[in-house]
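Students often ask why inverse folding is considered easier than folding. One informal answer: many sequences map to the same fold, so there is more than one right answer. In these notes we will look at a single instance of the problem. The structure comes first.
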């Protein structure tokens, strides 16, 4: 029983990070109707940002989030402004291929700059995790969990309580009607892409102390994001949150009760089962 609870706790803590990263992907799809194949590489950039801030400036990786979130937002805005804006009108297939090429470019530039070596961030306070009720709670994951909740809550308040957030939701529901009501749809799309990129970067910063870092880590993270958004229904923010937690819990339990080597495979099996028996997603409807 203790092993089960330990796996459940680890899965929920990790799932909050998966969810935040997937929310960035799903809001971009919801507003712009494009699937960003480079989303995992944006997460990787956030991870390396936290790593190099720790190495060069001895900055706590969690503190460095105040630097990398605005930097990644600006990066996302620039990518949309100078690379994607002219491609989007040509159709979903072209944007899919274009962002896949962008993912390869970013990963290979990272390989050239940083080599393919595996790196880790070693934190003194991560050595002896507290054990309430006999359950080990890794401090970096616990901090990341709290920050992920704070960031996701801030995103909700932004979308629900600000004029720009309402414009984002209006554009997601019907861009033509939003344009007729005076919403500057191209500007909102650019802001949304920047916001999705910032969430990816923030997720990378929060994941960095708990995972190995290497330039191609974005590939597996992109796949996890797609699994999550399919589980929760593509374009649904609540679905992405629930899907992220579910995937991480399944992986954590699978690592304990099946094999660590097969934990990713178990997540993909769940993905295929959902596609086969519940195409709209676990929290979707047949009309979605």
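Output (designed amino acids):
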């Amino acid at each position: 029983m203790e092993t089960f609870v330990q796996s459940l706790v680890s899965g929920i803590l990790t799932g909050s990070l998966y969810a935040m990263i997937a929310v960035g992907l799903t809001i971009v799809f919801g507003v712009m109707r494009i699937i960003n194949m480079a989303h995992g590489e944006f997460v990787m950039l956030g991870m390396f940002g936290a790593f190099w801030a720790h190495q060069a400036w001895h900055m706590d990786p969690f503190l460095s989030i105040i630097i990398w979130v605005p930097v990644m937002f600006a990066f996302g805005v620039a990518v949309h402004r100078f690379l994607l804006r002219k491609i989007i009108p040509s159709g979903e297939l072209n944007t899919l291929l274009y962002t896949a090429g962008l993912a390869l470019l970013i990963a290979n530039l990272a390989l050239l700059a940083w080599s393919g070596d595996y790196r880790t961030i070693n934190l003194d306070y991560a050595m002896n995790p507290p054990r309430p009720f006999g359950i080990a709670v890794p401090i970096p994951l616990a901090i990341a969990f709290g920050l992920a909740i704070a960031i996701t809550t801030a995103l909700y308040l932004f979308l629900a309580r600000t004029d720009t957030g309402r414009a984002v939701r209006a554009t997601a529901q019907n861009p033509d009607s939003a344009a007729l009501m005076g919403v500057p749809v191209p500007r909102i799309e650019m802001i949304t892409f920047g916001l999705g990129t910032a969430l990816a970067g923030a997720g990378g910063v929060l994941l960095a102390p708990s995972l190995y870092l290497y330039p191609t880590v974005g590939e597996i993270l992109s796949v996890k994001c797609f699994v999550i958004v399919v589980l929760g229904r593509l374009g649904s923010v609540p679905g992405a949150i629930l899907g992220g937690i579910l995937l991480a819990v399944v992986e954590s339990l699978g690592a304990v009760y099946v094999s660590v080597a097969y934990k990713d495979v178990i997540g993909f099996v769940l993905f295929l089962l959902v596609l086969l028996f519940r195409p709209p997603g676990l929290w979707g409807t047949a009309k979605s």
